[in-house]
Design goal:
Blueprint (H helix, E strand, L loop, with lengths): L1 H20 L19 H35 L7 H20 L1
Helix pairs in contact: 2-3
Protein backbone atom coordinates (compact mmCIF):
# COMPACT_ATOMS: atom_id res chain seq x y z
CA UNK A 1 0.00 0.00 0.00
CA UNK A 2 2.81 2.44 0.81
CA UNK A 3 4.39 1.78 -2.60
CA UNK A 4 1.12 2.61 -4.33
CA UNK A 5 0.80 5.74 -2.28
CA UNK A 6 4.36 6.77 -3.20
CA UNK A 7 3.73 6.04 -6.92
CA UNK A 8 0.44 7.94 -6.95
CA UNK A 9 1.96 10.92 -5.14
CA UNK A 10 4.92 10.81 -7.49
CA UNK A 11 2.60 10.83 -10.52
CA UNK A 12 0.58 13.65 -9.02
CA UNK A 13 3.76 15.69 -8.69
CA UNK A 14 5.38 14.72 -11.99
CA UNK A 15 2.43 15.26 -14.33
CA UNK A 16 1.94 18.96 -13.48
CA UNK A 17 5.71 19.48 -13.67
CA UNK A 18 5.77 17.98 -17.18
CA UNK A 19 2.95 20.22 -18.36
CA UNK A 20 4.71 23.29 -17.03
CA UNK A 21 7.90 22.37 -18.85
CA UNK A 22 6.44 23.50 -22.17
CA UNK A 23 6.39 27.07 -20.83
CA UNK A 24 10.17 26.97 -20.48
CA UNK A 25 10.59 26.86 -24.23
CA UNK A 26 9.36 29.86 -26.19
CA UNK A 27 6.39 29.11 -28.31
CA UNK A 28 6.01 30.45 -31.80
CA UNK A 29 4.60 33.93 -31.67
CA UNK A 30 2.99 35.74 -34.59
CA UNK A 31 4.87 38.89 -33.60
CA UNK A 32 8.05 37.20 -34.77
CA UNK A 33 6.68 37.33 -38.30
CA UNK A 34 6.43 41.12 -38.19
CA UNK A 35 9.68 41.71 -40.05
CA UNK A 36 10.07 45.07 -41.71
CA UNK A 37 12.67 45.58 -44.37
CA UNK A 38 15.45 47.96 -43.49
CA UNK A 39 15.84 51.03 -45.61
CA UNK A 40 18.73 50.76 -48.02
CA UNK A 41 21.93 51.80 -46.31
CA UNK A 42 23.38 53.10 -49.55
CA UNK A 43 20.88 55.95 -49.55
CA UNK A 44 21.81 56.87 -45.98
CA UNK A 45 25.51 56.86 -46.81
CA UNK A 46 24.98 58.89 -49.95
CA UNK A 47 22.84 61.43 -48.10
CA UNK A 48 25.48 61.71 -45.37
CA UNK A 49 28.23 62.22 -47.96
CA UNK A 50 26.21 64.92 -49.72
CA UNK A 51 25.51 66.67 -46.45
CA UNK A 52 29.19 66.57 -45.48
CA UNK A 53 30.18 67.91 -48.90
CA UNK A 54 27.62 70.70 -48.60
CA UNK A 55 29.07 71.63 -45.20
CA UNK A 56 32.58 71.69 -46.67
CA UNK A 57 31.45 73.92 -49.55
CA UNK A 58 29.78 76.31 -47.09
CA UNK A 59 33.02 76.47 -45.10
CA UNK A 60 34.96 77.12 -48.30
CA UNK A 61 32.60 79.96 -49.13
CA UNK A 62 33.00 81.60 -45.72
CA UNK A 63 36.78 81.14 -45.82
CA UNK A 64 36.97 82.75 -49.25
CA UNK A 65 35.10 85.77 -47.88
CA UNK A 66 37.55 86.09 -44.98
CA UNK A 67 40.44 85.58 -47.39
CA UNK A 68 39.29 88.56 -49.45
CA UNK A 69 39.21 90.78 -46.37
CA UNK A 70 42.62 89.45 -45.27
CA UNK A 71 44.08 90.31 -48.69
CA UNK A 72 42.61 93.82 -48.54
CA UNK A 73 44.26 94.30 -45.13
CA UNK A 74 47.53 92.97 -46.60
CA UNK A 75 47.41 95.68 -49.28
CA UNK A 76 47.20 98.22 -46.47
CA UNK A 77 50.25 96.66 -44.85
CA UNK A 78 48.54 94.64 -42.11
CA UNK A 79 49.26 90.91 -42.16
CA UNK A 80 46.60 88.73 -40.55
CA UNK A 81 47.79 85.92 -38.27
CA UNK A 82 45.18 83.53 -39.62
CA UNK A 83 45.99 84.10 -43.30
CA UNK A 84 48.29 81.08 -43.52
CA UNK A 85 45.82 78.88 -41.64
CA UNK A 86 42.96 80.03 -43.84
CA UNK A 87 44.93 79.28 -47.00
CA UNK A 88 45.86 75.79 -45.76
CA UNK A 89 42.25 75.07 -44.77
CA UNK A 90 40.97 76.27 -48.16
CA UNK A 91 43.49 74.04 -49.91
CA UNK A 92 42.52 71.02 -47.80
CA UNK A 93 38.77 71.56 -48.24
CA UNK A 94 39.02 72.14 -51.98
CA UNK A 95 41.03 68.94 -52.38
CA UNK A 96 38.46 67.01 -50.33
CA UNK A 97 35.52 68.37 -52.33
CA UNK A 98 37.34 67.67 -55.61
CA UNK A 99 37.86 64.04 -54.56
CA UNK A 100 34.22 63.65 -53.49
CA UNK A 101 32.96 65.04 -56.78
CA UNK A 102 35.24 62.68 -58.69
CA UNK A 103 33.78 59.57 -57.01
Amino acid sequence: MSRRLVLVSLLVLVIPALTQQSKLYPQFDNRMLDVRPEPPRDLDLQAARLQAMQHDVQELFSLSATLQSDLQRLQKGMLSKELGQHLKRIEKLSKKVRQEVGQ
